[in-house]
Amino acid sequence: MTDRRGDTKHVQPVERVLLWFALAFRVLGYIWLAILAVAALATDEGANHTIVVVMMIGAGLWTVLTVLLSRKRGLIKRRWFVVADGVVALLVASASYFAGAKSNLHGGYPISWLAIVAYAYEAKWTMAASLALFVNQWVGMDIEGTRTLPDKLGAIVFPIYGAIVGYGFDQIRHRDFLWRQAEDELAYQNARQARSDEQKKLADQLHDSVLQSMHAIQSEPHDAEKVEYIARRQERELRKTIRALQSDYEEPFITAMFAARDDVEDLYRTRIEMVCGYDAEMTSRLGALVEATREAMMNAAKHSGSAIIRTHCAESNGAITVLVRDEGSGFDTTAIVPKSIGRRLEPFGGTVTFSSTDEFGTEVEMTLPKGV
Question: pLDDT tens-digit profile of 131-164?
Fold first, then answer.
């Protein structure tokens, strides 16, 4: 947004467009002036050539300065510049009379001041500037004494241009404001709808899981094993919902990992404690790691006889590492080498190692380099 002085923290795109328009008015206005000045030097012997040359050089230098200052955010909107620009415009507009030229030499240069004012302020100030140029021309023609009434009435071009530029810039800003307001309102409504959808989804999940679980527990409260299983299952569902809500990804890796854990728990009725400290958007390489982890947990559940299996996932040194540990009966890793887990990871540069003893159980370590 911009304030009246042009100080900005964030310049809206429309302000940059209006600045380009104002600079275009300035450059084209000077080119027009330069053509008329060169023509006067070549054909108007009665004109004071020194004044014409000074006008052309001075206006040119001020044009260059205007373009340079425009690169400094909001600088040509400051009051001191707009006033100084007006003084230059009025001097240029009066140069024809000072030089005794037969016709006006200012071209479109004074009009470019109106564009600067329209860029910096509102239409009413642009109209005030245009009236100043109108009075300057009318009084100048009176003092010069040779101009006819139609010549004087030609000065009305300044209020006309002032109205077009001033109100035109104001309308562009107003339309842009309405457009951005509509976009903000649409974004707000979309966010509100998304929030409402999430709330309904969460309500449905709570209804389908928590309430049904509570009903199942109440129907058979004396079956301790079943109650424990239902409570464990409900805990998993709630944690899965919480993780999905907390994740920044549409298809989170962490959700897939816990879903694999839940599948193994349901299939073998084995308790699996999982800690996952890494999350990302699911990809084919992460999918391979999930499936490898699922197989490692299934092997532990089927063969170890352990009452609990622990799975830990973390990121370290540019790689994702998953450990699956059990406290059951081990196996001879020199005689039995499970290869299917490794085959899932090898296409993506992953590795798997096994450590197993009868005393401490089995540990499977899977490592997958991070990648696209």
Answer: 999 998 888 777 766 666 666 677 888 999 999 9
119 within some domain? yes
Residues linked to residue 322 through DSSP beta bridges, in sequence order = 313, 366
* Domain boundaries, position 268: 243-369
Q: What is the largest CA-CA distance in the chain?
A: 118
Identify whether residues 175 and 260 lie together within a single domain: no
Is 232 inside a domain boundary? no
Nearest by Cα to 127 from 172, 94, 160, 85: 160
Instruction: Report residue 357: phi and psi, to 5°.
Output: -140, 155
pTM for this entry: 0.54
Residue 112 burial (C-beta neighbours within 10 Å; 0-12, 13-18, 19+): buried
Q: What is the pLDDT of residues 307-317, one digit of tens each?
A: 899 999 999 88
Dist CA 35 CA 64 (whole Å): 17
User: Which long-range contacts link 95-100 to residues 24+ away (Cβ below 8 Å)?
Assistant: 95/51, 95/52, 95/55, 96/140, 96/144, 97/140, 97/141, 97/143, 97/144, 98/48, 98/51, 99/40, 99/47, 99/48, 99/49, 99/51, 99/52, 99/55, 100/46, 100/47, 100/48, 100/144
Domain co-membership, 173 together with 90: yes
- The terminus-to-terminus CA distance of the chain in angstroms comes to 39
